[in-house]
């Protein structure tokens, strides 16, 4: 969970720094009037290169998590992150050093965490635990906004070095905690380390290693892993093969991440202050960020319950409709009622202010709805859709898709908004309607299934709209096989009866 918190903080902290005077003086340009300024191109480069680095890290974790294990991979990417933060914090005037530090490839961690949580969590709690990870991300984002608000009036480099450098402390705490993290039992069994797997399973279930529950779980996992891994070690190309419908799982994971990034919420996070300024609000951009961050935290809490009570499909379908409604209302109201950007507040009409209040209200509702539904659910789905042999690669492709489109959004959105203004929200409206249709036709329900049963459902070719009522057979077969093996083992160990 510390990883999620640190990731959220890493995303949010730089946005506040971009408008701090000392930051602009050090990393901006000098205008014709002799005053320093941070051009939109430099802002987009600094912001978008973070996504570019995370794109590389998301793919890179697929190699490290198989080679060094889930635990070892988390350690490697945590160390890379800490070094990147040190580079950022220590820079004086070099924008090159700043951007290199921001490309700390932290997403290697973000891709590993859904993988690790999906493999270690019980099926009844897997969705809730993955949503808790999302909640930690949002809390980290919120804290970064609060710290930016607290330091932005400092007149020297401490205004931005304190919030940026705070990540060093968080990174060191993360590194120290990794040594207490158990390895994934599925990875251990997949690499023929049965004794270690038994030890981890015992600890995760709070029972002695000799307990029959451990024997049963090991047998079930071995049976299921053998069934899902028939054919040997997978290649990247196999992620798109027709075998066991792997191509469907990979495309679904990538499409959910693509749709999530074009929900519109990140546009509010990155550039909402411009619209809110036109709406006539007296709030500063820092306060607006804190409000949006607080709404996101509150919105993620209900998801802890809904992800298991409603399931994945219903959450995505409901969220798509709610956010689409918010987008079209905010977009049309903003287009027809708001004054041009940077209009003095004294010149705003009653119609401008009423439209601005409506825009702000539906922007907040949009972010709130995203936090409940489309924020956590695609990550939950991504973490539970793939068989063991392709799981790191499948999750890597989904995570990389997320950050590829995050990069494009952060780079091009300000340019598009400069041309069409609030009508950019209609693009997100169209994407959300597309998302509703896509989820209905292609995304099956995975609530209450083990990772091996999810694999069985895909192999069985169950239609997504029938998946809610589908009952698995592999889990029962694996359980019966495990019981037979255990009974046979105990019979071999039992003493022979003494003849009279």
From TrEMBL:
Family note: Belongs to the major facilitator superfamily. Sugar transporter (TC 2.A.1.1) family.
One Pfam family from the record: Sugar_tr
Gene Ontology molecular function: carbohydrate:proton symporter activity
Listed GO CC annotations: membrane
Matching NCBIfam families: SP (TIGR00879)
Chemical reaction(s) catalysed: myo-inositol(out) + H(+)(out) = myo-inositol(in) + H(+)(in)
Identification of the protein by name: Major facilitator superfamily (MFS) profile domain-containing protein
Native organism: Cyclocybe aegerita (Black poplar mushroom)
Organism domain of life: Eukaryota
Subcellular location per the Swiss-Prot or TrEMBL entry: Membrane
Membrane topology value: Multi-pass membrane protein
Domain Major facilitator superfamily (MFS) profile as annotated: residue spans: 1-447
Keyword set, alphabetical order: Membrane, Transmembrane, Transmembrane helix, Transport
Gene3D superfamilies reported for this sequence: MFS general substrate transporter like domains
Transmembrane portions of the chain: 6-24, 45-63, 69-87, 128-150, 162-181, 286-307, 319-339, 359-382, 394-414, 420-443
Keyword Transmembrane helix: yes
């Amino acid at each position: 969970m510390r990883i999620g918190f640190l990731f959220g903080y890493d995303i949010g902290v730089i946005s506040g720094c971009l408008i701090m005077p000392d930051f602009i003086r050090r990393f901006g340009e000098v205008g014709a009037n002799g005053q320093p300024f941070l051009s939109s191109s430099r802002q987009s480069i600094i912001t978008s290169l973070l996504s570019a680095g995370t794109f590389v890290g998301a793919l890179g974790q697929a190699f490290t998590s198989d080679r060094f294990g889930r635990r070892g991979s988390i350690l490697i990417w945590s160390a890379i992150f800490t070094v990147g933060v040190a580079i950022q914090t220590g820079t004086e005037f070099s924008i090159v050093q700043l951007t290199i530090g921001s490309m700390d490839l932290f997403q290697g961690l973000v891709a590993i965490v859904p993988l690790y949580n999906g493999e270690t969590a019980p099926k009844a709690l897997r969705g809730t635990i993955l949503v808790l990870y999302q909640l930690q991300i949002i809390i980290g984002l919120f804290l970064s906004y609060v710290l930016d608000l607290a330091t932005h009036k400092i007149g020297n480099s401490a205004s931005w070095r304190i919030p940026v450098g705070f990540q060093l402390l968080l990174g060191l705490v993360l590194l120290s905690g990794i040594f207490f993290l158990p390895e994934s039992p599925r990875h251990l069994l997949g690499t023929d380390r049965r004794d270690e797997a038994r030890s981890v399973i015992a600890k995760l279930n709070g029972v002695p290693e000799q307990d029959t529950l451990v024997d049963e779980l090991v047998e079930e996992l071995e049976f299921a892993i053998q069934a899902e891994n028939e054919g040997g070690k997978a290649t990247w190309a196999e992620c798109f093969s027709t075998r066991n419908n792997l191509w469907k799982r990979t495309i679904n994971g990538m499409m959910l991440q693509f749709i999530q990034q074009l929900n519109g919420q990140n546009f509010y996070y990155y550039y909402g202050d411009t619209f809110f300024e036109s709406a006539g609000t007296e709030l500063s951009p820092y306060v607006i960020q804190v409000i949006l961050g607080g709404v996101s935290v509150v919105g993620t809490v209900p998801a802890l319950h809904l992800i298991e009570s409603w399931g994945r499909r219903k959450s995505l379908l409901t969220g798509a409709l709610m956010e689409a409604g918010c987008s079209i209302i905010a977009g049309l109201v903003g287009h027809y009622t708001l004054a041009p950007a940077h209009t003095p507040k004294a010149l705003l009409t009653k119609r401008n202010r009423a439209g601005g209040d409506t825009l702000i209200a539906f922007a907040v509702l949009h972010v709130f709805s995203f936090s409940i539904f489309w924020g956590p659910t695609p990550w939950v789905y991504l973490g539970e859709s793939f068989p063991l042999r392709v799981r790191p690669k499948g999750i890597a492709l989904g995570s990389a898709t997320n950050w590829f489109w995050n990069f494009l959004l952060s780079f091009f959105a300000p340019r598009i908004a400069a041309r069409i203004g609030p009508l950019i929200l209609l693009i997100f409206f169209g994407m959300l309607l597309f998302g509703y249709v896509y989820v209905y036709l292609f995304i099956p329900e995975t609530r209450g299934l083990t990772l091996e049963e999810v694999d069985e459902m895909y192999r069985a070719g169950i239609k997504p709209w029938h998946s809610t009522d589908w009952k698995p057979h592999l889990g029962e077969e694996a359980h019966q096989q495990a019981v037979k093996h255990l009974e046979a083992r105990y019979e071999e160990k039992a003493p022979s009866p003494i003849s009279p």
